[in-house]
Amino acid sequence: MNIPLLPRRAFLKTVAGAAATAALGAPFRSEAAAGKIKLGMDNFSVRALGWKASQLLDYADSLKLDTLFISDLEAFDSLEEGYLRDVKAKADALKIELYTGSWSICPSSTRFRKDWGTAEEHLTTGIRVSKTLGSPVFRVVLGSAEDRKTPGGIRARIADTVKVLKACEGKAKDANVKISIENHAGDMHSWELVDLVEEAGKDFVGVNIDSGNAAWTLEDPLDLLERLGPYTNCSSLRDDMIWETSEGASIAWTAAGEGLLDWKQWVARWSLLCPSVPIQIETISGFSRGFSYKKAEFWKDYDKRPEVLAKFEALAKKGHAIPGFKAPEGVDKKVAEQDYQKAELARSIKYLREVIGLGLKS
After folding, report:
1. Higher model confidence: residue 275 or residue 20?
2. pLDDT at position 31, please?
3. Can you give the pLDDT at residue 278?
């Protein structure tokens, strides 16, 4: 197809206008961002409210979200089929897609709990719940950074997790539910999570990508996205503020647009690597954690890759210390925490919708 060329003066005027618009901070609109990538929330963002599924759906609707990720089974009043079908019916009426999840399925993890029986029973329950609710995935985790210190290290815990996944492979495939493993609380580097997925079977296992947790394995979130994006089938995202300390770095999670993550670049890569996956926000803010990676003993439990660490350190050089959350004087601490969590989520959604251009709903 022949496209007519603009006269030189008109071309320069167009370029100048585009530059001026960018300088004024106009919304970023790639074809994918402006109406193709769904926007949602992870219910852990408002954990202090203690809301159940119906209340969470009402809140997601008030924020005009496309998806709701209920990432723990405790948020359901019941796991009986009739109740779950009612939840799905409400979600359908509100035009909100449900994503579901739970916690550790690694029987040897320090985070594993027997609330739902054995690891296999836990995963089987989650697959059934996901199928009834119409969730394309069931999110689970291995554990946390503490598992890196256990006998055999994180590779032994990965092997145990793979066994559980393979034991439930047929059930997941029969239900047409993919399992989604999160990079959770510093448990796995991104390349270790890729190995887990490949060993278990990427035809039924994928990744729940967590941009905040990337920093807890000393990875640049954008670098992590490059590795995990092709495997991603769910998300729990937030921003990071990272700053240098004498022993390494401190990390604080923030609302989207208030940290160091370049969301325009993130969405541009997302639209190529996993465009059908919703961007779901899980704000966890108000505190910081130090990582003493300049001490040699730190690397006893982590896989040091200089090229990866260099990207993380480049981020830390751009950052600055930020204060933690503290309830105002005279305000009930629980109420203050609830209001704080809602505000962090609301600002994130507003930024991603109005500045980045995400979401299908106006």
Report:
1. 275
2. 42
3. 98
Q: Is residue 196 part of a domain?
A: yes
Among the ranges given (25-29, 256-260, 308-312), the one the predictor scored with the smallest mean pLDDT: 25-29
Stretch (H or E) spanning 23: helix 8-23
Sign of CA dihedral 20, 346, 206, 36: negative
For residues 197 and 170, the answer to whether their CB atoms sit within 8 Å is no
Domain that holds residue 283: 29-356
Q: Quick check: is 1 in a domain?
A: no
The pairs formed by 91-96 with CB atoms below 8 angstroms and a separation of 24 or more are 91/57, 91/133, 91/134, 92/134, 94/57, 94/60, 94/61, 95/66, 95/361, 96/40, 96/57, 96/60, 96/61, 96/65, 96/66, 96/67, 96/68
**What's the CATH code of the domain at 197?**
3.20.20.150
307 domain-assigned: yes
Per the structure, the count of domains in the chain is 1
Has residue 42 got a pLDDT over 70?
yes
